[in-house]
Write the structure tokens for this entry.
Amino acid sequence: MAFPVLKDNPETCMKCGFCMSGCPVYNIDFSESHVARGRNMLIQMLKDNKIKADKSYESALYYCLLCGRCESVCMANIATNAITLNARKEYADLKGLPLLKRIIFRLLLKHRSFFARFGRLLSFIPGLTVKEGKPVRHFPDIISAMVKGISSPRFSVPFLAKRIKKIQKNSNSDTETDKPRIAFFAGCLFEFIFAEAGADIFSLFKDAGYRIEYPEQTCCALPVYASGDFKTAKYMAKCNIESFSGYDYIVTGCASCGSTLKSYVNWFDDEETKTKASELAGKVKDVGEFLVQQDYQSNIEGNEKLKVTYHDPCHLKWKQGISSEPRKLLKSLPGIEFIEMENPDACCGLGGSFALTNPEASSAIQAKKIESIKKTGADVVATSCPGCMIQLMDGIKKNNLPVKVMHISQLAHQKEKRGL
Amino acid sequence: MKLNNNIISDLKKIVGDDGILLSSADLASYSYDGSCNWQSMPDVVVFPQTTEQVSDIMKLAYENTIPITPRGAGTSLSGGPVPSSGGIVLCTARMNRILEIDEENFAVTAEAGVVLNNMNMELAKRNLFFPPDPQSFLAATIGGCIAVGAGGPYAVKYGVFKHYILGMTIVLANGSIIDIGGNTMKNVTGYDLPQLVCGSEGTLCTVTKIKLRLVPKPKASQTITAVFNDVTNAGNAVHMIKSKGVIPAKIELIDNWVINRVNEITGMGFPSDADAILFFEVDGSPESIKKEEEDVVALCKEAGAEDVWAAKDAEDAMKVWGARRSGFLAIYGNAPTALAEDVTVPTNKISEFLERVKDIRKKYDVEVVIIGHAGDGNLHPTVLTDKKDTEHYERADKAVQELFKTALNLGGAISGEHGIGLEKQRFLKDAISGDEINLLKGIKKIFDPKGILNPGKIWEQ
């Protein structure tokens, strides 16, 4: 007798507890409701009417970084992140989303042009903006103190879209139509926070002679989907699916965006959208992965030895299985001495809004990471996700370490970015 | 039972506000363990960080007669740490320091909440080896392993947890802290209390520190795979190899059902009509493993193996053991409920037991699959079912009952390494005599006069 087993059914969890072994959150306070097994059980107990959907249940649902590490050790091959997300949706349907989240998701993230205008307005507030690489101090630190957490990232003006227009105008870009068409998916953090790094990725491709474009796009919708607002998230996903059809590759420098674009296929039931999403998923490439596959040769010259270590973003390693390519790229670059840190695949602790809602746990996870970085004596910690970059920069600042945080593609491209 | 606010605030004084859980979701997540059927809510969960805190908690429980259930990671398969009488769950997960690695005397001292795999990683750095390897090692704590008397595949050659205990620190029901056992491998000083505590499932005391014996890491190992078209021959091979004086470190067996699922998952391409496959690991010096490899290959052939081969290199060996491990995925990925049993038979009865399993499968029309430790007779027959399908589940349960009866008739035990807990209470009377059960109860009374230590476990009340 064979039983049909749905992978996103919490009942399939055999409670072996293997998820405890790598879970960054569980390994801070060892509390069962903070690990996949505990959440699976709570979600099932709610279905069986054994517990109530109260605040403590909500807190357990959100006490998760969605890093996906538990899935990599799961004996029963369970989609624990999907189970958690489905439960968040059911909880949001039952209790409604908080007003702030509704505004952010349904107005700002859904419509990027609104966000751009809103961000532009905010950027006039002194201290919220990076000017010539130096943030004006104080204001963000007050905000940080208020949330007891990470120093709030600054907007970088001008935003990425504007910078890319400039690059496109200045480049004598070829329009050879036989080259593969590459679309750049930036994601919100490169668009608004790390616009300079975002522009670096784009110009790396331009300079290397690739046919790269920057199509109309919106947020990948991960924060929206992760809060259980599936309706808005699906709308956003459809916009991106439409906008990115017709390209040969979709390159992104954001591990979270990349993994989300690949997961759209699981969001839809109708065959038409599913097929399109599946096509999209097949074309998504992480920048490092793409460059290594294309056998990219950096044109940087130099004998300086910059000590570089690499932090594996969870959404790249656990969600997309990419960890050797970024290292291969780094090791191939001239002027770099690669040093592996202890537990390079340990989470940085950001987890999107997790860092804001659970600052103590987030900081404790971050502290372990910073300790590993410190031990390497590296000059630069490179990574493949702007989310991780925020968290790493914050940790390095808190500890006054002489370490620079860079996106991996910045190291590949321009010598001056390395601070040499 | 509801605890009054004074008790809660006293507990907070002992472990701090961070060391206590009271919310409904938190309590619910300490209501189960790794087994399928048992659930009961605690009133409070506490996380002590020192032996002294455990002692203070115990004193409070003793004075107020509150049930107290110790718990490590809750990976047990017996219902042992399920707080079936409510009260306090005492979770040792934050007592997770390795206190001493004594390389000269081959010993390690660790707190009860240290995760086995974390300890093993530290030992490996020093070329030391702690052999008992319960397959929950990624999460299971040392304290939990001691509580259930855990073992694993390495038992064939190296034995189980109880064979490695030198001494321990325990907290008695009234809160007194005592050290039992000692530092030496040979030690006959009155009754062997550490051996009594090992396997007592938290019903006698709470263990807070453990001193374990270690061995040097073997220099070399080799993996051999043997395919059989008749599971009886596989059983005979195990017996023949051991009687010729060859003691492999592990001898694992998977049956036809598991072979085919493993092929699907890993693409190993094992013969799909094979009745059973045996995986051997021999270890020791490079010279000795060569000889043992030849012996194992020859004896498997003599026992009627269709095909036998040794791993080409370390990578090849890793693939084989990866395939063996994927057997768990095969089982848990293919059944909503898997009743993973733990019966053990003497090794000369393995063939007979495997034949009887086939009969049971037919008789109750349920899938009973085998992925077990053939080397020590701990075969782990697992019945695949669905808790929600009442009719099927009833048949599955009957099959389980017959598995137990069969094992006992062959001179075996109802639990090799999981413990009795709540899960196997109903079989205890068949396994041991009333007089023996009375002795157990009498011992419990001496340790726990008020009956507050993990009450309701091991024997039926």
